[in-house]
From TrEMBL:
Taxonomic placement: Eukaryota, Metazoa, Chordata, Craniata, Vertebrata
Protein's recorded name: Acylamino-acid-releasing enzyme
Organism of provenance: Erpetoichthys calabaricus
Entry similarity comment: Belongs to the peptidase S9C family.
Region entry Disordered, spans: 180-199
Catalytic activity: Cleavage of an N-acetyl or N-formyl amino acid from the N-terminus of a polypeptide
Amino acid sequence: MAAAVTTDPKTISAIYRQYCNFPSPTQAFVGPEVPCEQGGSYINICTEWTQSELERGQSISFSRQHTVLHDGVSLRLIGPPSPCTDIQNQLLSCYSPSGKLKAVIREKQEKQFLEIWGENGLLRSTDLSVQNVHGKVYGSGQFGVLSWSHSEKKVLYVAEKKQTEIRSFFQTSASVCHDEKRESKRQEGKEEQEDSNISQQPIKDSNLEFWDDWGEGMSGSRLPVLCILDIQSSCILVVKGIPDDVSPGQALWAPGDQGLLFVGWHHEPFRLGLKFCYNRRSALYHVDFEGRCELLSSDSHAISSPRLSPDQRHVIYLEGETFGPHSQCLRLQLYDWLTKETSILVDRVKRPEKDSFAGLYTTALPMMCWSADSQRILVHTPQRSKKEIYVVQLMEKRLTRLVDSTESGSWTILTAQRDLVIAFCSAPNSPPSLKLGIFPPKGGEQSITWVSLQESDQLPAIEWTVLTFTPPPAEENQHFPGLDFEALLVKPKSVEKAGIPLIVQPHGGPHSVFVAQWQQNLAVLVRVGFAVLQVNYRGSTGFGQDSIESLIGLIGRQDVKDVQHAVNTVLQSDATLNPKSVYLLGGSHGGFLVCHLVGQYPDFYKAGVMMNPVINYATLLGTSDITDWRYTAVGLQYSYDRIPTVDDLAAMLTSSPLVHAAKITTPVLLLLGGKDKRVTPKQGVELYRVLKSRSRSVRLLWYPDDGHSLSKTSTMADSFMAMILWFLQHLGRKPH
């Protein structure tokens, strides 16, 4: 008898709403110490969170505070946390080094303000919009920066460069305001000269000139500039000396406030998409306030996440290769500010040994990640199908795992200050729990004990496990043999009846990974009654650089076979699953794989959902913001001046699921973002027309104001309900 599945839309939406109530921490700060009469010190822990608010259809942000007693050896939570405070209009925020001041960039009615808050309230508010020094301030991504100087007298941020006003040759700027002056000037014989000056004022003959930007999720981001606000005078300085061919971001103050450190992304001859792409050519620079700019790193790699040690002696940063896979195994580099020498702290890992460190794959280092003595660094990174925390020893260049995540799922660091570590852990059946720990002395890292600041209970109705798969001999990669891969199997707990329907979900990227952490949609699907298999096929991050490179030139083949092998293996080994009730779900490259699977295995799956899928690499080539990947994916070398040949286009088409589309009989739901710059929604429309022309079951939902990630709160809610109802609609359908 089949296991029970909830089919009532009202009940499902109520579960979705319930799980929206679990917030996620985004930022934390350790406040100043206040002496306690009985010994030790009181410390305020400030945290910021996000949560989906369905009534308004948006993500909301709030802050809360916890008070702890710290005696130098142990921690004790004092009382309950403070009530949550709405910080919805807050674009960026940053506490000063002493913790006594807080800078906030706030947006109100299309204006932006930089506020300075102290212990007794608002100290200063500067309307950045009326300063007319720069354009909009960046609030996220590689250019979203807010940083205090060490002296706490200035604040650094990044904004769009002020653009010169553009007017038509046929538009005179003063046809009215100059009328009253003309008569007097005519008498002085100056009218002819003035009219000549007016006619020369326009700079361009049109405002329709094309300017590229940094692509998906960064529309309008073209020319960032580094800006400094003087707290006392409210004067804004736009930093000079930045090379013309780079876009500065991820900036911080240099030692002794002697200039700025920043990452510069090269934008010539044109920009390629930056979001989710960590292989863009970039470098670490130092610029002083005289306009002198110095290169500190290699200029031929992809650099990110510079972090200055507390003693201001060392700078660490991540380094990867340019082009190739968009996400790779990274090096952790160490720059000595005094000797000007660079050395490798953590190198890339090609093929990790069993149960050993698999390499660094983090997209960013924590903003504050150093120990108080500047001798150790905390990093978090995917390790196979979990995210783990490691300690890097500066002198020994050795790594130690900080937390045993065998039972707890995945861990993420929020901040490390004065040897107090704030992190959160979660799992597929457990929303985020906020933890505070004292960084143990050197050599005793694994003895860390945690105090729970915000504890979330496990959901008893959900269980999960990590499964490992070995490709069959016929599917081994000849250039990278011996690789395995994993999948997360999450399903209803204690189901006595067999027949649980299975949703198979390959991730996008393709070089990304599913880790065992809280995912709201996943939890709702399981609570409704589905099992979900999230497949980390060969090519996923967290398994070594060899695994990543093994997929190059084999997309549409190796990844497809890995997913199908995982599904077949699980169905054979788990008697609680229904082998005749299997569904597919995927976005971007995951949607690419869903389309391949329903085309290559037309009698296997009962329904499929694709979110902004790649359907035809050949037609996507000229419309995507990541043209380089369209070549790399099929094993071709990319260069900015490359023009595709007939053979290039043939290779792209051959790897595309479109070549199998005529065989699709599985009902397909397409969810497309109208503003997607990564994978144009016309890709989904192309498949839609193929299926409609063959009278196949297909539905397309178009979200005009959303992009590639379909990440707006209203979109996520609507698309989730559409997806699950599509699966339920075909729950009893027999595959062809």
